[in-house]
From TrEMBL:
CDD domains: HAD_L2-DEX. The lineage of its organism: Bacteria, Pseudomonadati, Pseudomonadota, Betaproteobacteria, Burkholderiales. This is 2-haloacid dehalogenase. GO terms for molecular function: (S)-2-haloacid dehalogenase activity. Transmembrane segments: none annotated. Keywords: Hydrolase. NCBIfam families: HAD-SF-IA-v2, HAD_type_II. SUPFAM superfamilies: HAD-like. It comes from the Bacteria. It comes from Paraburkholderia silvatlantica.
Length: 222
């Protein structure tokens, strides 16, 4: 893959570039309602329901978060208080990049257009991207695509907006379930997995593994 020169390098944003703090946000909000020994199970359920919520027809991301936390509370027998979902949702624009993101992207931004594909709302992601401090060619949202990853429709929207084919891009993500599995099914052969410890390796899906964004330059021969 080091010889591949993509027309665009496309990225998952939250978790891959941006420090995804959904579990810490839920932990802080529910620490008076969930025993410490059950908090990991609670935040894991919250994460699982968020994935389930994005598999259907598009709805605002605030509803995704709120529905998921309601369902996690119901499953775990925890009190849900009106406004809990919005309190978590409102924190999203405040999240900044991983420590390796800005310098790693700066290495490749001069040679390749950078493009984000995110499940964020339109009003959220500009604040996160601004904190990275590296110029992006474009950032496309689930709200624009009217579909969330891992749905193919989100990737189809990306390719349509860029007017390119699956073989023209290099897609970078820390998640198999949200990105790399669908990218594989879409025929995107050139993929990078950023191993941030979110999910176990799955070599079937064909990717180059890097530990952080600092390793991306070597993948494209820089």
């Amino acid at each position: 893959m080091s010889l591949f020169q993509p027309k665009f390098i496309t990225f998952d944003c939250y978790g891959t570039l941006i420090n995804f703090e959904m579990a810490p946000a839920a932990t802080a909000l529910y620490q008076d309602r969930v025993p410490a020994g059950k908090m990991r199970a609670f935040t894991d359920a919250f994460a699982a329901y968020r994935l389930d919520e994005v598999l259907g027809a598009w709805k605002p991301y605030e509803q995704v978060v709120d529905n998921a936390i309601r369902r996690a509370c119901r499953r775990m027998g925890v009190e849900y208080r009106e406004g809990d979902g919005k309190a978590i949702y409102d924190q999203v624009p405040t999240w900044g990049p991983h420590p390796d993101t800005s310098a790693g992207l700066a290495k490749v931004a001069k040679e390749f257009p950078l493009v984000g594909l995110t499940n964020a709302a339109n009003v959220q992601i500009p604040h996160n991207i601004e904190r990275i401090g590296v110029p992006f060619h474009a950032v496309y949202t689930a709200e624009q695509a009217q579909a969330y990853k891992p749905q193919m429709k989100a990737f189809e929207y990306l390719l349509g907006q860029l007017n390119c084919n699956p073989e023209d891009i290099l897609h970078v993500s820390s998640s198999f379930r949200y990105d790399l599995m669908t990218a594989h099914d879409m025929g995107i052969k050139n993929k990078v997995w950023v191993n941030r410890g979110h999910e176990p390796a799955n070599p079937y899906y064909g990717y180059t593994e890097i530990r952080d964004i600092g390793g991306l330059a070597a993948v494209v021969g820089l």
